[in-house]
Amino acid sequence: MEQLQQKLEQCRQAILEAGKRLLVTDEISAEEKTDYTNLVTKYDKATQQFLIDAFSQIMEDATFLCEEEDVADTSGKNVFIIDPIDGTANFTKYYGHSAISVALAREGRLLWGAVYNPFTEDFFEARAGEGAYHNGKCIHVSKDGLKQSLVAFGTSPYYRELRDESFRIALDVMDHALDIRRSGSAALDLCYVACGRCGVFFELQLSAWDFAAGMLIVQEAGGVLTDIHGNTPDFTAKSGIVAGNKAAHQEFIKLYGK
Ligand code: 2AM
Ligand code: CA
Question: For a pocket test of ligand 1, which of 185, 192, 193, 211 has the largest count of ligand atoms closer than 8 A to its C-beta?
Fold first, then answer.
């Protein structure tokens, strides 16, 4: 246990160091992946490689499921699920709202999740069974019902066919909630649910690296995270995501669940 604690501290330090390297002021040029909204920069790739190298040194038998470069091996004892920059579009615009997202899974269970926004130095973290933390302080989801809540959402930019449905729900939920927010980082949206800033977050399709770390952080903060049908998603696969405090999540699923 003590040894795991030490290893997680080393992982934390690697994430902080990777974050420092994202505080760039020179020109960020982006390459298109599948289309003009699906961007990657040399920073996404460098951050991913830096973290893979660091975590491989820290944990024996580590394998990786990552957003960039088709890295997808979940066969190891320790599986790291990494989005090197969640919110790349924001990053290319110096928007200050992007995060490194890292989950560690063992034997099919999430063991640790960390989401770090280096621009604001917000470090969200959770360890299974031990609560969720924001910069070292224990966090909890809010107690607000939907009517009193901000609802964060994403538009599944890589799935154009989900755009109308995403906005239909967002438009409709404005009549049931305090207001809506679209931040550009699903990992941070999940952390905002975990610390009570938002009552609900939804996005109709996300990849494992967008939500695995945030999933554990929401759950450990006392929240609920399901797919749009109300089922627990597989954190190594693509899924629609609805996260919230229990009451607001339930109201949301009742209104928009399939
Ligand atoms: P990414 O930057 O790692 O790809 C939110 O909708 C999710 O979609 C984010 O987690 C973000 O992850 C992704 N995304 C991709 N393109 C986007 C865009 N143009 N604007 C906002 N989010 C985008
Ligand atoms: Ca990314």
Answer: 185
